[in-house]
Design a protein that fits this description.
Distance between the termini: 26 Å
Strand content: 15-25%
CATH architecture: 4-Layer Sandwich
Number of domains: 1
Helix content: 25-40%
CATH class: Alpha Beta
CATH topology: Purple Acid Phosphatase, chain A, domain 2
Number of helices: 8
CATH superfamily: Metallo-dependent phosphatases
Low-confidence stretches: 172-177
Order of helices and strands: EHEHEHEEEHHHHHEEEEE
Largest sheet: 6 strands, mixed
């Protein structure tokens, strides 16, 4: 994509809407809606890098209640001609077509390559990448297993969603405490992942979420790893104007 004059690419991740409860999540939801209204004025495209919801599971004829205003706003933006790209996170990885069919938003389950103004990006949520985190990687294999998903689908939605939301909120990833601690450039596993990717292919920017900590780390002479932070306490987003990438607090 060649970004039109005066337009920008926007990035957001780890909103965790619905946590710790729907009621307490409302102010953050309103803030995110205000952000969408702001960026749609000059957006060439919007990238949502996962964990938009603290829990999401699509039954064949049921989607989780709440966040209807967010879904409506996303549909409005897409209908206006602004593309939105969604990457599933570890809290909303059970997406099976609703965003594509109802909202016109492509959904990706793995990092993807994009090119804007001759700058090459690798974009994804970031979970399960790089060295370590073996416990989560094993857990993800279970959650993405078709048989496990089939079994969960037979649990009544009222019960299934209640159980899943309870476990999701208890997950350490929503606490923000452990994930908001900088480990040092040599220990940041997504930065290590980026460096390994550069051994085989050049990228100007690696853009991820998941860590709940905004950061920009040089991983090569002309390559930068960027983590977007979260919308629990950080309220950070990324913007690329065709020349430079910035992390901004909303």
């Amino acid at each position: 994509m060649q970004i039109p004059e005066g337009k920008k690419i926007y990035f957001s991740s780890d909103n965790h809407l619905g946590a710790p409860t729907q009621e307490l999540s409302k102010p953050r939801e309103r803030k995110f809606l205000a952000w969408l209204d702001q960026v749609k004025e000059d957006a060439a495209a919007i990238f949502l890098l996962g964990d938009l919801f603290d829990f999401w599971f699509e039954y064949k004829t049921v989607v989780p209640k709440n966040q209807v205003r967010v879904l409506g706003k996303l549909a409005e933006i897409v209908d206006s001609g602004i593309p939105i790209y969604f990457f599933v996170g570890n809290h909303d990885l059970w997406m099976f077509g609703y965003f594509e069919e109802e909202l016109g938003i492509p959904v990706y389950h793995a990092p993807q390559t994009f090119e804007f103004n001759n700058k090459k990006f690798l974009i994804g949520h970031g979970d399960g990448l790089g060295p370590g985190d073996k416990g989560y990687k094993r857990m993800k294999k279970v959650f993405t297993n078709p048989f496990f998903q089939w079994c969960f689908r037979w649990v009544h939605p009222d019960m299934g969603v209640r159980i899943a939301r309870h476990l999701s909120v208890k997950n350490k990833l929503i606490s923000g405490e452990e994930d908001a601690q900088f480990l040092g450039e040599e220990n940041e596993w997504l930065a290590q992942y980026a460096k390994r990717k550069l051994e085989k292919e050049h990228f100007d920017y690696f853009v991820f979420g998941h860590r709940h900590l905004p950061m920009q780390i040089k991983v090569g002479e002309t390559s930068t790893y960027i983590n977007l932070g979260d919308w629990i306490s950080q309220y950070r987003y990324g913007v690329f104007d065709g020349k430079d990438f910035q992390l901004i607090r909303f």
